[in-house]
């Protein structure tokens, strides 16, 4: 049997780059760490160093850089549900803005479980991350977790519907939900249902409270604005919709806590031979990309989730650069987007 000798190739170093480029090692380090070209290094020297870096295939040792600078150039991001496209739009915004600033992204998800959320935050905090962005599974972090994060001194930005001890991006659905309910009332709907697919009931109060408030003010009996609680998966939303749509009388308008569950409602209605929106109006929240490509296109409440991710990252990086800044809270609006899945109430 032929035996082959494996020759290990030496990983190129900054000294190798400096020698081939004819500059000092300090110059190579300056070029690598000064991406915006603010240091007094000639354009020709910078280009020569970058060319040699490319030729040698030099890669900086990020672990060594982190030890020297105390900054890992990594942002931790916690999302509550890895299956919901709504949160991937936020991830896209965070990743895009982080990359511009020279940061990597470390992602974790809590599966909308409060205990797992605490575990994920602890796990991320043990890593050498520069800061943390949290999209909560619960309405508020546990006091123990909040205390631990404050004690760490590490910058934190929360994306939620209420302020906290940290910098925050606040977006809630209250005003847009009121607008959505008034729109459905104008279409003649009087029998409503709300599919509340959340891990913890407190999560959806920014939609449930205005839901009951507007319908009660319109004189709709409480029995005619049902709420059915279920899990966060489309299958659980589908089963909840089947339960509602086989009642007599059935609702003429169903709101789902998010677009993913609203899509499950559309599927259940189709399986029961109901026409949308002639027999049933369906509305979601979040305006995921898929919502505008369904047939019929989904009426929903829009949030600028990618923009939220970008702004959260900007707040975090500003905090990293200036830890003495006061707590900042940025409020972003949500708005109703009317499409084809809602129409006049059936006679």
What does this structure look like?
There is one protein chain. By secondary structure, the protein is an alpha/beta fold. The protein has 3 domains: about 45 residues, 434 Repressor (Amino-terminal Domain) (Orthogonal Bundle), CATH 1.10.260; about 130 residues, Rossmann fold (3-Layer(aba) Sandwich); about 130 residues, Rossmann fold (3-Layer(aba) Sandwich), CATH 3.40.50. The protein contains 12 helices and 12 strands. Strands 2-1-3-4-5-11 form a 6-stranded parallel β-sheet, with helices on both faces. A 4-stranded parallel β-sheet has the order 7-6-8-9, with helices on both faces. Helix 7 links the parallel strand 3 and strand 4. Helix 1 crosses helix 3, helix 5 runs parallel beside helix 12 and helix 8 runs parallel beside helix 9. It is elongated. The relative contact order is 0.12. The N terminus is likely disordered.
Helices and strands, with pairings:
Layout lengths: L13 H8 L3 H9 L9 H14 L5 H8 L4 E6 L5 H16 L3 E6 L4 H13 L4 E5 L7 H10 L3 E5 L6 E4 L3 H13 L5 E6 L7 H13 L7 E6 L3 H12 L7 E4 L2 H13 L9 E3 L16 E3 L2 H17 L7 E3 L3 E3 L10
Parallel strand pairs: 1-2, 1-3, 3-4, 4-5, 5-11, 6-7, 6-8, 8-9
Antiparallel strand pairs: 10-12
Helix pairs in contact: 1-2, 1-3, 5-12, 8-9, 10-11
